[in-house]
């Protein structure tokens, strides 16, 4: 009997170990993290002052009041403002019945900005508000009757003071004729009874010539003391009047006589 063949059992091959390799390089940049969208429930926490309703209310209204105040100050200094007028020195143009009824007029004023681009802002006949030279803390309201370079012949005031005329010779009769002799012994005295308005000044008087403290006592007023010019008169609701001259011809003759001249810049200012 022949021998049987050897039986061989199949064997599994040993497991192969795979080498780890790096992933292929990608040229695309890594995506940026996206900010999460704010939702009504994800708000930043408020500070302690914001949570205080009373403090938040006061802060809001304080800011509004400051802004409103700055705006009003700018309008008042640059554009227009209104002020009441007391006294009767400008009657009958302003406060014509203040003594009888006590009713005061209000003036709507435009501030005067002294700029080189507007040298002719003040004209004869304008009603201006200025700071008084004898009382610097008070403001006066008068009419401009003469500008720089004009000659004024007042009917009263310091120019006709007897103590002043004792060292001056009187000049400027109402007819405009000379009242002195150049060959007389008084010819070397300074002329009295007239004033030449100096450069940078104006001559102001009240419409009520018998009851007005103005340039006839204070002298010419510097333009730097003039604050504003009247543009309208307010006499109650709906009663606005343009600034004019309500005096009669007789009342106008009570004021000073003015001879228009030409202003010349002093030589010392040209050096």
UniProtKB/TrEMBL annotation:
Q: Which residues form the Peptidase S26 domain?
A: 60-234
Instruction: Specify residue ranges for compositional bias: Polar residues.
Output: 36-48
Gene3D superfamilies according to UniProt: Umud Fragment, subunit A
Name used for this protein in its record = Mitochondrial inner membrane protease subunit
UniProt lineage? Eukaryota, Fungi, Dikarya, Ascomycota, Pezizomycotina
Pfam family membership, one = Peptidase_S26
A Gene Ontology biological process noted in the UniProt record is:
signal peptide processing
Question: EC annotation?
Answer: 3.4.21.-
Q: Which organism is it from?
A: Paraphoma chrysanthemicola
């Amino acid at each position: 009997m022949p021998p049987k063949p050897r039986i061989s059992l199949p064997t599994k091959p040993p497991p192969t170990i795979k080498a780890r390799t790096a992933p292929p390089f990608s040229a695309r940049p890594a995506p940026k993290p996206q900010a999460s969208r704010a939702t009504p429930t994800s708000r930043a926490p408020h500070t302690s002052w914001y949570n205080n309703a009373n403090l938040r209310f006061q802060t809001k209204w304080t800011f509004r009041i400051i802004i409103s105040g700055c705006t009003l100050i700018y309008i008042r200094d640059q554009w227009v403002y209104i002020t009441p007028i007391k006294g009767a020195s400008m009657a009958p143009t302003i406060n014509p019945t203040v003594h009888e009824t006590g009713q005061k007029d209000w003036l709507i004023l435009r501030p005067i900005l002294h700029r080189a681009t507007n040298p002719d802002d003040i004209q004869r006949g304008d009603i201006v508000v200025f700071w008084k030279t004898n009382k610097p803390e008070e403001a006066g309201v008068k009419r401009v009757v003469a500008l720089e370079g004009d000659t004024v012949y007042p009917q009263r005031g310091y120019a006709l003071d007897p103590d002043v005329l004792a060292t001056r010779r009187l000049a400027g009769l109402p007819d405009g004729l000379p009242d002195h002799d150049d060959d007389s012994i008084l010819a070397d005295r300074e002329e009295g009874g007239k004033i030449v308005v100096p450069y940078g000044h104006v001559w102001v008087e009240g419409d009520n010539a018998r009851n007005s403290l103005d340039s006839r006592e204070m002298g010419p007023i510097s333009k730097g003391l003039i604050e504003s010019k009247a543009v309208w008169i307010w006499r109650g609701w709906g009663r606005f009047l343009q600034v004019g001259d309500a005096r009669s011809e007789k009342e106008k003759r009570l004021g000073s006589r003015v001879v228009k001249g030409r202003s010349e810049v002093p030589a010392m200012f040209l050096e």
